[in-house]
Amino acid sequence: MIEGDIVFLPMIPLIIASIITVSFRGKISNYITSISSMISCALMLYVSYKVLILNQVIRSSIRIGPELPSIPLNFLSIRFLIDSLSGIFIFILGLVGFLASLYSISYMSRFYDKEHLGFYGFNYMVFLLSMYLTLTTRDLFWFIIFWEIMTLSSQFLVSFEKEKRRAVWAGYKYFTITKAGSEVLIIGILLLIIFYCGMNTDFLVLRYVMKPGKLLNNIIIALLFIGLAVKASLTPFHTWLPDAHPEAPSHVSALLSGVMIKVPIYMMFRLYYFFFRPSLLWGIIVSVMGIITVLIGAFYALIQEDSKRLLAYSSIENIGIIILGLGVSLSFLSINNISYNVLGAIALFASLYHVVNHAIYKSLLFMVAGSIYYRTGSRDLDVLGGLSKYMPLTALAAIIGILSITGIPPFNGFTSKWLLYSSTIGSGTPYVIMGILLLFTGGITIAVYIKFYTTIFTRPPKKPYTMEIKESPPTITLPLISLAILCILFGLFPIIPWYIIGDFIQRIYPLRSYIGIYPGLIIVPTISIAFPFLLLLVLASIIFPLLFAIYLGYRKSISITWASGILYKSSPMSVSSRSYYNVFRTIFSEVYSIGDTLYNIFILKTSSALRKLFEAIYYVIENPPYMIILFLLLILLNYIILWEGWYIID
Q: CA angle 578-581-582, nearest 5°?
């Protein structure tokens, strides 16, 4: 086999099985979908191993028509490239996809007599395939084609339970908002290839083609960033995600949150580090959007009463953390100063490290919520409770995922957050404020997951369960345990994610020369304390207050209160989820009112204007004369810009 042909290996099982599975409706279709998807995702892991560990760059192409050398924009050739950047995202797609497909064997059995699983299987495999193709294509034209297929197939998965009106509405809302983002993205791509690339859409032609500082460049970059930000659910474009992710089957929610919203982040890295060089202006813009997204995600996760909706808002927060790291890296790497460059490279490492970490622990937590829903049929935090004694493995996996996402050492979430704290708070720049805000939201995240865990596993249920509650089947619990183990390994041994991420970091900046990364140790020059000592310090700060609280609880486990002369015994664990952190919501009522106002403006007021805009766009697209006129006007604008000397093509 030619080395470049391995890029096609993961595609083959998905393509073949997607054709076969539509002929079946129930169990057979589910098994075909799950097994073929697992095979394909295992092959994705193999491809990522070749790229990330063996440091290979895989190039290949497939021609679906005759060679047309006189036409730069050749739609008949699909070109593929897997480098160290796309390899990182293919790794998380293969990992989460494999475990999600294993999980689906039992989870989808709930729908054998309710839904057409052949339709689900077709869309599930097309979804996996389109994400893989989007990450591997090196052509802008085919990128947008695969991007749109990814949107369409995932929309059908979100609204899979078509008898539930809420699921259908969530799918519609998701599709319309992300389609609006796609239109903005397409406009930016058209301007890019017309004005800079001579209608050539190959990524190699785009490398550093745009220089920061020119008006046209910034307009194109803004259009591309907005289009990607909608899909990545950055604030204020995040409103589709809390509705869409909870309504999808839980393993699909894991893929949506763990992988799909990372695909636009992959393209942001490609945009800012390959298509043009880092700039301070865009570093500030990206990091500000990142920290706003962090705050919105954390604040709204705290007040949710649906387990999956809480996790969805938490995903928004973590996407903000990733984007904040990207923005900080852009700012510091654009400055001609070694100290700032090292900080920028650390922020870049933190951002990509968090991409991998979030894919692991958020997929784990969505699967935990699915395991609970599989046995109880409920996601309501006001109804659930006391499940730790019935579902001990699920409870164990949940607590590990929670310790990871809240950034408690020695779990993986701590290390990536610590690197970001080091690059911001240790910089002595205005980014210190963002680092402090990130620390503040870390406290909110802990509060969110105290609520998540206690309402589901430790608090007495609101009413006795009407069905038999026991641990979920092995095909559900095995992915949970596997992801929980990875949360521990990626935290204890940061050298493992360095093997995955390090090659790309080194290509941007030689960070390995400035920091120490060892099997159980990471040393960053901006801090004066090594990782193990910091670990002991943080653990001590957690363990001693915990032991003291346990001692006080032993001395006085039940609070005694007199009310109207009657002895009243209350257990704090009986508090409903609606009552958690009411004081917090009262104190920050202005923040929530601003968020609600923005939601009303963005969704309710803007929807009619967007609908009219889309109708006008589709009217132009469906009428060839108008398309020809529009194309000629763009060419004329190109010549005007060339004549006026607004930009120079190198």
A: 70
User: Six-digit token pair at 415?
Assistant: 């290390």
Mean confidence (pLDDT) of the chain: 82
CA-to-CA distance for 401 and 412, rounded, in angstroms?
9
**For the residues 86-111, what does the mean pLDDT come to?**
94
More confident residue, 125 or 172: 125
pLDDT for res 645: 46
> Which range among 29-38, 76-85, 313-322, 351-360 shows the weakest confidence by mean pLDDT?
76-85
Sequence letter at residue 266: Y
pLDDT at residue 593 tops 60: yes
* Cβ atoms of residues 231 and 178 within 8 Å: yes
Residue 148 pLDDT exceeds 80? yes
Q: Which two tokens stand for residue 624?
A: 């060839």
In the chain, where are the structural domains located?
A: 278-552+568-592, 601-649
**pLDDT of 504-516, one tens digit each?**
999 999 988 888 7
CA 528 to chain centre: 32
Report how far residue 178's alpha carbon sits from residue 184's, in angstroms, rounded to the nearest whole number: 10
Query: What tokens were used for 91?
Result: 């790794």
Torsion of CA 220, 223, 224, 229, to 10 degrees: 150
State the Cα–Cα distance between residues 161 and 377, nearest whole angstrom.
14
Instruction: Give the DSSP per-residue string, 173-207.
Output: HHHHHHHHHHHHHHHHHHHHHHHTSTT--BHHHHT
Looking only at the bridges linking them, the beta strands covering 77-82 and 516-518 are unpaired
- DSSP per position, 56-88: --EEEEEESS---TT-SS-TTEEEEEE-HHHHH
Q: What is the pLDDT of residue 75?
A: 60
**Strands 77-82 vs 566-570: parallel, antiparallel or unpaired:** unpaired
| CA nearest neighbour of 80 among 14, 167, 9 | 9
For residues 90 and 47, is the Cβ–Cβ distance under 8 A?
A: yes
Residues 384, 576: Cα–Cα separation, whole Å: 10
- 412 burial class (0-12, 13-18, 19+ CB within 10 angstroms)? buried
CB 110 within 8 A of CB 482: no
pLDDT on residue 205: 76
Question: Residue 251 and residue 67: Cα distance in Å, rounded?
Answer: 42
